[in-house]
Design goal:
Helices cover 60% and strands 5% of the residues. With 749 residues, the chain is mainly alpha-helical. The relative contact order is 0.14.
Length: 749
Amino acid sequence: MSPTADARPSLFTLLRQIGQDPERPTEEEVEAVSKMIHTQEEKDRTRCGIGSFRPKWLQRLARKEVYLGMFCTIATALGMFGTYNSAVTSTLEKRFKMSSKQMGIVLSGNDISSTIFAILVGYFGNFGHRPRWIGLGIMSAAIASFMAALPHLIYGQGREAEDLLAATYSGTNMTVELFKEKKEIELCNTTLAEDQRCAEEGEDGSDFGGGIKGPMVFIFISQLMIGVAHSIFWSIGVTYLDDNLNKKTYPLYYAISLLVRMLGPVLGFMVGGKCLSLWIDPRYQPSISSNDPRWLGAWWLGFLIIGCILGSLSGLLFLFPHTLPGTLRREAKRVIRQTRIHTGEGRDVHYYAAMTRTKKQKAERPSFKNLLRALRRLFTNKIWVANLFNTIMAVLAYGGYFTFKPKYMENQFRKSASESNYYTGATSLTSLIIGTALGGIVMRWIRPRPRIVTGYNTFLTVFYTAGITSLIFIGCPKLHVDGPYPGSSIPECSAECGCTEQFSPVCSQDMNTVHYSPCVAGCTRADTEASPIIFSDCKCINNSSFTSTTVGVGGGWGVGGYCREACGMFQYYLLAQIIIKSVWATGKVAASMINLRAVRDEDKAVALGTLSVCVALFGFIPSPIIMGAFIDSACLVWDKTCGKKGNCWLYDSDKFRLYQHLVPAIFNFLSLFGDLVVFYLSPRIDFYGDKEVKDEDEVKDEVEDEDEVKDEVEDEDEVEDEDEVLAMTGKREDGEAAERERLTQETEE
């Protein structure tokens, strides 16, 4: 058997064959009609390259499959940036002494720039060279990634990290400067001279507490720049993809893109987990475990990695053509299909070719006046407005939830920052693959009616609300810490130790009781060469009974960090997350189609841009701020270095769990009202392009008689008399009949 006989078609070959009509137009027919409706300038704009650099081998890449691959790769990198932000949130709060609310404000820069630019970029960019617009946006994202890492490169790891490293590092390759003054761990009757530390950094204590302003500015600007990139990519990039795909195959292509793109958020968490497992200065390793709340991971390293990826991708986009060649072929095929469907009505291929030319000539040119018209069409579109409302409510629900989810897992289940990100990424990957793949398959091959699709989305809203509410009841018992914070006090056994409010938890030798710090535990010795650090001769830990005591005989030992939780609810929490997100993800493809199919084709870009603006302004900007404020209200121990309030060290886990799930459940329930309106009006939506060639209503909307065709063409100064207008519509019965007969015969051949 020959090798050719065993050859199997590729995935993209199969995708191209999906949805093809049995009476598919021949290439000769397509070429003949294309000559009727396309100018040479339009054909030149389908060539890959820049300027005079347009080699023949490069033209092989002018395909929708190549752009889809590039689209997925870029979306993956952008997704990495977004979830990496969430992965390092708690570390940034500790490093720069920020509260959760302050961190939410800093991260809102992404959505502020989206609010400013999305509509303008989505509208005017759609009339320009879209791949190059996208290339500029991704270049902006690369710069934003590098800027996000600048605070570390400028300010370093911070004085507290240096002190902790100096006090606990047992290696031999430390720099001489770091050991100029050996730092001590706060033990019983050991004075750290906090006032002196503050004086060393200046009377205002600018490096301790209150939130460091310089790094916050850099991070905020980086968020502004990444927001510009998102505005361009998710408006122009999506419409460029949609315009180059058949509407029947779009659901499957979009599902494939989602499956690939979802690797981005997962990889973001995975990269975050790996980077945070390294000390903030990867050259050294202090003698504390990553479970210790004082641990600071290399949060800046991932931004450099993501920036290099985005920078390398941005240049390739400039090589894509203004329009892919397949778009011109589809326009020609559409004319042929319209002619076949309406055979016998006295209208031949010339009529529909003229209609296509006229429609393209009358297409709106970019202007603020036309932009206002498009916006008026959008906000009078009941389906689009209702879908906008439920989208905003859904974003308010999960925006803040996913931002602080790794932090929640750290505090609720006592996982390290790296572990939290690994688990978050793994559950996201599993659930999204299952749900998105199933949703795409159903939408492509079963092709349910709009009423069924929107009804199912309504069910998903109810299901997700109930599911996330149920997570309130899956958690670990509230952690009790012996120490100076609301609801507790300094034990009598260490009352004379002169302890400060510096939080540094110690697990008692019974592996159950947690002390506020080694000083509060009454410890007088520390073995910094052990990892984690071992504290001994502790007055508040009874060595004989292996339990903690308020007076006791003392003499026990403990280890730095939290005790290992005996709670076994973590695996149930992960399982519930996978089930809820898998079911919820089955509606992602349908939700995307509603956004695109509820509006006119020429309004798709501005619709996505306007959606981005409204969702950013009323959803993404307030959601982390609202959630951060609720989380801050659950704080028990605030950092108060040098008298200034910084990050939170210890939370009331019961309140944290309640706020983390109840707030998004309420917002998600409110989105149900928008879903019900979309469900009621859903019969108007054309999901699969069935009305595009089977109805002549669109043609009649453009021209209802020959006089209207004449007016439309004269407006563009394309013809000067009625004979030319009649020739364009195929109605002329004299000299043009012979020419029409000849062209028809050529097409049939």
